[in-house]
Amino acid sequence: MTKQRKVILEELHKVTSHPTADMVYEMVRKRLPHISLGTVYRNLEDLADQGEIRKLSIDGTRMRFDGNPEEHTHIRCIVCGRVDDIHFAPTVSMQDSISDNGYKILGHKLEFYGKCSECRKKDEIMKAKEKKRKSKD
Amino acid sequence: MTKQRKVILEELHKVTSHPTADMVYEMVRKRLPHISLGTVYRNLEDLADQGEIRKLSIDGTRMRFDGNPEEHTHIRCIVCGRVDDIHFAPTVSMQDSISDNGYKILGHKLEFYGKCSECRKKDEIMKAKEKKRKSKD
DNA sequence: GTAATTGCAAAAATTTTGCCTCATA
DNA sequence: TATGAGGCAAAATTTTTGCAATTAC
After folding, report:
1. A106/chain B closest Cα distance in angstroms
2. Is residue A63 domain-shared with residue A79, that is, in the same domain?
3. What residues make up the domain containing B54?
4. Chain A positions in Cβ-Cβ contact with residue B120 (cut-off 8 Å)
5. What is the pTM of this model?
6. Which terminus in chain A has less CB density within 10 A, N or C?
7. B66 in Cβ contact with A96 (< 8 Å)
């Protein structure tokens, strides 16, 4: 456990925002200005392998990282892309069987998507403006 | 609807293997040898926007594409990475409400993971070899 | 004929890797 | 001191984009 790895893990525990590797790099750089991006990638990979953190493939083309390694459910905003944890836990059954595809099922990932409160607010502001504009015509 | 887009869609309908953009490119190239990768990317993007296909962020760092736009559940092999459709349908409720995070929920993605039959077979072969090796000691 | 789309190539974005140096146990 | 990890930079991988030429309607 090097200084670098310790700080990466600490910073990841501070947030619930599921940052990308680059975001983690920026967070960590405030405390360790000489750390390199390669080190961040290597440690995130190692930490995920050891089950200390989780790698999330939910945001298009880049990985996000979650300081909470326990199984939990996410919710992603389809407008701005932010990913939050969800605090009610819908249960999904049928996990410890072998499926019709011949798979031995080991677990599942559940992700909801929708619009976050900020993006919904923006929508309403847009709608209000639209209405105003129309009433002027 | 250009020839290129038509062929891309057709090829995607032929398979259930959830190919990457590059795989789609290779599939399409057999029929349209001069198509460019950029065109494949642009069309996959457009088709997904129109709801004709689905973009899947389940395989690490690159997108996969699904010719079946309907909501359905996937299963991914943690060993070889292949992604199949799942034919039993676990239901997940609580979609048309607003969650504790202030999100307006619009839908969900459910993905199981486990070991595919091929990788389980390989495991067993490995185990058998291991046993044989030990008995020799 | 006009607007949209393609092919090509360059650029951008993200992740991985090699290699030498430095830190840790 | 030896082993493993870090820093840096180059390379690899994946995706996006600009632009001239072509195609679809």
Report:
1. 5
2. no
3. 1-70
4. 102, 104
5. 0.85
6. C
7. no
